[in-house]
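Box 4.2: Ligand-aware structure prediction
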Amino acid sequence: MIHTRGLARDFRAKKEVVKAVKGIDIDVSPGELVAFLGPNGAGKSTTLRMLTTSLRPTRGTATVAGHDVLAAPVEVRRAIGYIGQGNGVSHNHRIVDELVDHGRFYGMTGRDARRRAAELLELLGLAGMAKRSIGTLSGGQRRRADIALGLMHRPALLFLDEPSTGLDPQNRANLAEEIVRLRAELGMTIFLTTHYLEEADQLAERVLIIDDGEVIAAGSPAELKATLAGDRITLGMADEVAAKSAAALLEGSARETTVSGATVILTVENGESALPRTLRALDAADLPADTAKLRIPTLDDVFLSLTGRTLRDADAA
Ligand SMILES: Nc1ncnc2c1ncn2[C@@H]1O[C@H](COP(=O)(O)OP(=O)(O)OP(=O)(O)O)[C@@H](O)[C@H]1O
């Protein structure tokens, strides 16, 4: 559904060249829900703008929904839905009129557009608000109206740029559920950008992590966490000597073992089964642990292991 090779975009700003996207390869299959995750300024929006044909690549190729973004931009636009950050919906229009106009723009008949608008308003829980103007909606409702707009012409591929920016945690969670449900009901391919870790983790089957214009990792959230971060067991031993003996005993069964004072930290695969196994091995060797803690990694741990900084720090910078 999306294929890019060496896709790059430079910007010229005050005689300096900003390499916003540095030659990325992306492959998204039909039906996938993929999140493009990275800190502020990583190149997410620039990539999305190239894929949705609003910005020309400096180098490389991109095929979206079967069409080349440079050779056939009109075909690309007809095949996709794009929901940007704060879409251009007019605040004074009634929601239903906005949707119907949008459908007409894409060549739908008035009747088909009205039927589709009613269907989407129902699907997105906005049916009772069809005649309200956009300006009277809450932030979360407005986001859902934006999504309805992007879906009017039944695109096979939907791009969502930072769908939950500006929403409170509750509305963010609601929107995430909505996106998952829509994908299931409409069978679309969805490509969304986000800098919310929880959102990528909860929503996406596959995450592409972008940093400084480069894709630095790709995989399902579970795969990325298992291969790049690993589960962590922290054991509190009686003293430093016991900790060193425990570390020597457990070294073979952990990916990484470190000792700090009376504490042993193990990085393991599948921590939930490794923890009881570890405690049994320690008991059998007469080296009982006083405390044991298991920590399952987040995507932030993945980002940390890849870049040496957390996504939150990178955002703050
Ligand atoms: N028109 C432009 N002129 C110069 N530099 C630009 C321009 N547009 C983007 N950039 C730079 O390109 C880099 C990538 O920006 P981009 O907006 O793609 O990041 P992003 O990952 O979408 O960030 P955010 O999460 O903040 O939206 C940044 O360093 C940005 O300052």
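In the box above, the bound molecule is adenosine-5'-triphosphate. The pocket of adenosine-5'-triphosphate is lined by residues 11, 13, 18, 20, 38, 40-46, 195 (CB under 6 Å).
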